[in-house]
Design goal:
- The complex is a heterodimer of chains A (218) and B (508).
- Helices cover 42% and strands 22% of the residues of chain A.
- Chain A is α/β, with parallel strands linked by helices.
- Chain B folds into two domains: 23-65 and 292-508, MetI-like (MetI-like fold, Orthogonal Bundle); 66-281, MetI-like (MetI-like fold, Orthogonal Bundle), CATH 1.10.3720.
- Chain B contains 22 helices and no strands.
- The longest helix of chain B is centred in the middle third of the chain and has 41 residues, at 302-342.
- The model of chain B is unreliable at 13-21 (pLDDT under 50).
- Classes of the chains: A alpha/beta (218), B mainly alpha (508).
- The interface between A and B is medium-sized, with 30 and 23 residues.
Chain lengths: 218, 508
């Protein structure tokens, strides 16, 4: 599905060779500035039309409500006039769908969907941003630390939601336990290079592999 | 000797740059300052011995003891001033939004560059030949150039927005949906704030249109100034300050939101427009096909037409162009320096107290600087310093510094600061100024074009910029020459505009 062959992006990514098949659940681990975001951007550009994309900066439009920010995930499915009408007067079909989605994200549809997103807290904003990506309803989800501002319980719940709804998932994470518990394949990136790329199971039984994981952050 | 010195200086600059110790922002600022220094020897910056004291003391007396015209006259001219500005800004902002949507098209860019390159005053003079001293002339003279300005500014505001929201929606999404869901709402606060500020500019333009005879405040202001009735001039000027200072009460009211207030005012404005007097000029068609072309061209004598154009270009346009460029370059750099000194005194980022006296004074100072038309500044400086480029540079720099400082101050207040950010001078140098600096440069680069445009007004006072020759051509009813010079000045503006656009895109 994704394929990189000796890929080079100035100093940020060096000789990356990578092949990802449909159906894989992959976590990217590594120190800040190591190249996780650059790699995700590259993968995203490979087929941007069919990816639910959740960037680190959220990309919320401050002046719009939570509802409209989530609705933006389906702009391409409707014509401009339909979208414009929905901007002025939210349509009940989408209102129901998005309220349902908000409940799954532990957001209160009455409270959090109808004020401008600039009034929401960091964690709420992050969930609105995930909401937009989920509303894209794609097979593949790419996210850059999508649950970094959430408490552990909520983070676990939303990770499961993302994994359940998508066939292929690639997430950059900073919490290694989250990565090991929920994903099949772990890729470690440091200084622009892939340090290791192995099944998550390996880390429990193989001491050497566990050592690699520790050395990633040294 | 001088040349070798210059080349060694330039050489050390280029070494300085190539080491790239400085970021692109600093490099650009530095280049501008050096260019301005190089301009100084060539510009007409002599201080003449003049005896201004008698005239100045009369101006001083007038300011201390202002007098006001009859209340009916004052109210009527104020209403017409506001009506022209409001209708023109509403129309121009709407058209500007539409143009901004298709601003990537070169035709749209060139078109809006050409309509905004001609000053309101000259649009007024042009429309006057066709529509006389009517409301149509007043509104169109502001609406046409402002449409070009709005289009460019809105397009730039959109350009400045983060591209991240756009990256999360599917690439297949159509342009309109993108515009309404991400670009427009992202830019909305800045657009509203810019439109408010433009409305102030429009009030000033509307006033200035009085100088060519439209019945706005400026008509009475110019008459009073010309006749030396400084007490009445001061009274009119104070009324104008009050009008601008009170915008926040009658337009940005807390009682009624703007989307209800503005339509009400618009209806009232249409009612307040003066009745059109009998038009005595040529028809639009006759004006465009006959009046504005040289006789020799109309009679088909191409070689003498070429001679005529050559004469106009070499003997009139180029010297005027040179003067305009020198003065505006100096004015631009002086403006930048003044802005960096002025803006913190008016900003909540530095004086957060609700009732800060310093901030209040700073705001009033900026209000006065940006409300006084350059014309008035230049007039007073001409009295003190004699007829040279200095009054023009000072007038342009003070007025524009007032404007940009105000915009920068607002920008600095919109930023979010950490609770533990520094105070006073540390806050200025480490936090606020570095964060607002890119915006400052972009305002200044944008203003560059406007400064050249505004030097047109000063031409009327006798400073030999392009505007001087355009104004005299209209006075001599030489429309052919006026059109030629207007086109030259428009080309100059377009050149500066595209140059500043390039510089800006290099910055980011």
């Amino acid at each position: 599905m994704f394929k990189l062959d000796n890929y080079q992006l100035d100093a940020r990514l060096k000789n990356i060779s990578l092949s990802i098949n449909a159906g894989e659940k992959i976590a990217l681990l590594g120190p800040s500035g190591g190249g996780k975001t650059s790699l995700l951007n590259v993968l995203h550009q490979q087929c941007a039309n069919n990816i639910a994309w959740c960037p680190q900066e959220h990309g919320l439009v401050e002046a719009l409500s939570g509802y409209h920010n989530i609705y933006m995930g389906q702009l391409q499915k409707h014509n401009a006039l339909y979208n414009l009408v929905n901007l002025l007067k939210p349509l009940s079909k989408h209102k129901n769908e998005i309220s349902e989605l908000a409940r799954l994200l532990a957001l209160d549809p009455e409270l959090h969907l109808w004020t401008s997103v600039s009034q929401l807290s960091g964690g709420q904003r992050q969930r609105i941003s995930i909401g937009r990506a989920l509303y894209r309803s794609q097979d593949t989800f790419l996210g850059d630390e999508p649950v970094s501002s959430l408490d552990p319980v909520q983070a676990q719940m939303i990770l499961e939601l993302i994994l359940r709804r998508h066939n292929t998932v690639i997430l950059a994470l900073h919490n290694r336990q989250q990565a090991l518990n929920n994903f099949d394949r772990i890729i470690g990136i440091k200084a622009g290079s892939i340090i290791f790329d192995s099944p998550a199971k390996e880390f429990a039984k193989n001491k050497y592999q566990a050592g690699l994981l520790d050395s990633l952050y040294e | 000797m001088l040349i070798s010195f210059l080349s060694s200086v330039l050489g050390s600059f280029s070494r300085f740059f190539s080491k790239s110790l400085l970021g692109s922002n600093q490099r650009l600022s530095f280049t501008f300052i050096v260019t301005a220094l190089l301009c100084i020897p060539f510009a007409d910056l002599v201080i003449y011995q003049v005896e201004p004291w008698q005239e100045l003391s009369r101006i001083g007396q007038g300011i201390i003891q202002p007098s006001f015209p009859e209340i009916a006259v004052l109210a009527d001219s104020l209403m017409i001033t506001v009506a022209f500005a409001l209708i023109a800004v509403a129309g121009a902002a709407f058209l500007g939004l539409l143009f901004a949507l298709v601003f990537h098209s070169k035709i749209v860019r060139v078109f809006s560059a050409s309509i905004r390159a001609v000053h309101e005053l000259f649009w007024g003079l042009i429309f006057m030949q066709v529509y006389g001293l009517s409301a149509t002339t007043g509104v169109l003279a502001i609406l046409v150039p402002f449409t070009g300005i709005f289009a460019k500014m809105f397009a730039e505001i959109i350009e400045q927005q983060s591209t991240v929201p756009n990256s999360t929606i599917a690439p297949k999404t159509d342009r309109f949906s993108r515009y309404f869901y991400s670009w427009l709402p992202q830019s909305w606060p800045q657009m509203v704030s810019y439109t408010r500020y433009r409305f102030e500019c429009a009030l000033r333009s509307s006033t200035i249109l009085g100088f060519i005879g439209l019945p706005t405040l400026g008509f009475y202001l110019e008459t009073a100034f010309k006749q030396g009735q400084y007490d009445e001039a001061a009274g009119l000027l104070f009324s104008f300050f009050l009008l601008i200072a009170s915008i926040r009460w009658w337009l940005h009211s807390r009682v009624l939101p703007a989307y209800i207030l503005v339509p009400i005012y618009l209806v009232l404005s249409f009612i307040a427009l003066p009745e059109a007097p009998q038009v005595y000029g040529s028809s639009l068609v006759q004006f465009l096909t006959y009046d504005v072309w040289p006789k020799s061209l109309l009679s088909g004598d191409l070689s003498s037409a070429m001679n005529w154009y050559q004469h106009q270009l070499l003997d009139v346009a180029l010297p005027a162009l040179w003067d305009t460029l020198l003065l505006s370059q100096l004015a631009l750099v002086l403006t930048g320096i003044l802005v960096l000194v002025f803006y913190p005194w008016a900003s909540k980022a530095f004086f957060p107290n609700k009732l800060s006296l310093i901030r209040g004074l700073g705001r009033s100072f900026l209000l006065i600087l940006r409300s006084v038309p350059e014309m008035i500044f230049a007039f007073v400086f001409l009295l003190i310093l004699g007829p040279s480029g200095i009054p023009a540079v000072l007038a342009l720099a003070l007025h524009n510094a007032g404007l940009i400082s105000y915009l920068l101050m607002r920008h600095s207040e919109q930023l979010k600061y950490r609770a533990d950010s520094g105070k006073g001078i540390n806050h200025y140098f480490y936090e606020v100024t570095p964060r607002v600096y890119p915006h400052f440069l972009s305002l200044l680069l944008y203003r560059w074009e406007v400064i050249i445009r505004e030097s047109a007004i000063l031409g009327i006072l006798g400073i030999t910029t392009l505007g001087f020759y355009i104004d005299s051509a209209f006075e001599d009813i030489r429309y052919d020459r006026a059109l030629f010079l207007i086109i030259i000045s428009a080309l100059l503006n377009i050149a500066v505009d595209s140059f500043s656009r390039k510089v800006r895109s290099n910055l980011s």
